[in-house]
Design brief:
Layout: E1 2-8, H1 14-27, E2 32-38, H2 49-62, E3 69-78, H3 82-94, E4 99-104, H4 112-117, E5 120-122, H5 131-149
Parallel strand pairs: 1-2, 1-4, 3-4, 3-5
Main location: cytoplasm
Catalytic activity: pseudouridine(1915) in 23S rRNA + S-adenosyl-L-methionine = N(3)-methylpseudouridine(1915) in 23S rRNA + S-adenosyl-L-homocysteine + H(+)
Subcellular location: Cytoplasm
Length: 157
């Protein structure tokens, strides 16, 4: 299985970019991992929230292959403990899917077309985090999940 993380807009903090890169590199030890950035929509100030979600949705859907399993990072998604998230990853690997695609949307969320294509939604917290921080938290949790599955000493229960 491969995991692809897709996010809207580039990370504007070098410190966050460096930390994301550290965990992405660590993940390569366990699984094929790819982090794709979809550039911000140009002239988004001239668009309504709905129009921006539609345009971002088209760009997200254009990244997908028919065999991909799409999971959205969404405030209404299921919350997991780190142990439960590790189990979620194991079940996805056991199911034989080729590519698990996790998507962090833009500031207004996802279009209806993207919701229609997704297989599930995950929420990292009831709190709201910046989209920049969510990238780091998610990559770290994926890494943590694989260390849990391998019984490595990174996660302490």
């Amino acid at each position: 299985m491969q995991i692809t993380l897709i996010a809207i807009g580039k990370t504007d903090r070098a410190e966050l970019e460096e930390l994301i890169s550290i965990y992405a590199k660590r993940l390569q030890h366990y699984i094929k991992f790819e982090f794709r950035i979809i550039p911000d929509i140009k002239n988004s100030k001239n668009l309504s929230e709905a129009q921006q979600k539609e345009k971002e949705g088209e760009l997200i859907l254009a990244q997908l292959q028919p065999t991909d399993t799409l999971i959205l990072l969404d405030e209404k998604g299921k919350q997991y403990t780190s142990m439960d998230f590790a189990d979620f990853l194991q079940k996805k690997m056991n199911s034989g899917i080729k590519n698990l695609v996790l998507v962090i949307g833009g500031p207004y969320g996802f279009s209806e077309a993207v919701y229609a294509e997704c297989s599930g939604k995950i929420s990292l917290s009831k709190m709201t985090f910046s989209h920049q921080m969510v990238r780091l938290f998610l990559v770290e949790q994926i890494y943590r999940g694989f260390t849990i599955l391998r019984n490595e000493p990174y996660h302490h229960q």
